[in-house]
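re: the backbone from monday

yeah here it is again, tokenized this time
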């Protein structure tokens, strides 16, 4: 059936997805298919091993991601929350890495919310309403609190005075700066930006 075909496709391609949210989400799909399709215990174990590796390379210690896009990070939180619910539906305990990753990513995404609780269009992502941010983060980590100061690799900071919040973004993570392949790295790490716009426009 269709679910089985998608599962086989993810088996083959998950580890070839771009590092970061795409690879993590692909491995979440492998695990979910292993949980939902009868007799797929080996696929679940395979997926859990792949997810652990993907999280090690695509989710920083402070909960940030290589693209630094708040929208992408929120999507990752959403998928991790759904994966946790799939484990619950099977009456199984999710691996610690799933809950830990959801907690870290939730704190990071709450740390870049604006004064109204929504997300701005940073790093190629679209604005996200406060209602969606609240629904996703509460489902993933009800006790999550905004991360005030990100580690050096993510380069984010937060200052709050009353209700308004100010977010600041520092330099790109390591490996996304200058060099002979800087343009490719910037696209991967920062998403669409001025360089990409000039490429599209042919200027």
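seq for it, each position gets an aa:
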């Amino acid at each position: 059936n269709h679910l089985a075909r998608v599962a086989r496709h993810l088996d083959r391609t998950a580890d070839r997805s771009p590092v970061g949210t795409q690879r993590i989400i692909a491995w979440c799909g492998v695990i979910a298919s292993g949980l939902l399709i009868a007799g797929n215990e080996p696929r679940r174990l395979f997926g859990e091993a792949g997810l652990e590796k993907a999280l090690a390379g695509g989710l920083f210690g402070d909960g940030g991601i290589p693209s630094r896009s708040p929208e992408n990070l929120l999507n990752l939180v959403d998928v991790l929350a759904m994966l946790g619910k799939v484990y619950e539906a099977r009456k199984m305990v999710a691996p610690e890495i799933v809950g830990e990753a959801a907690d870290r990513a939730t704190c990071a995404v709450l740390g870049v919310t604006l004064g109204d609780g929504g997300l701005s269009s940073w790093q190629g992502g679209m604005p996200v309403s406060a209602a969606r941010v609240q629904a996703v983060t509460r489902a993933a980590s009800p006790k999550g609190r905004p991360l005030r100061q990100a580690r050096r690799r993510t380069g984010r900071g937060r200052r709050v005075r009353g209700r308004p919040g100010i977010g600041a973004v520092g330099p790109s993570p390591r490996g996304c700066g200058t060099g002979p392949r800087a343009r490719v790295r910037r696209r991967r790490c920062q998403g669409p930006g001025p360089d990409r716009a000039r490429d599209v426009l042919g200027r």
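The first helix runs from residue 2 to 13. Helices lie at 2-13, 21-36, 41-58, 70-89, 96-110, 130-140, 182-190, 194-201.
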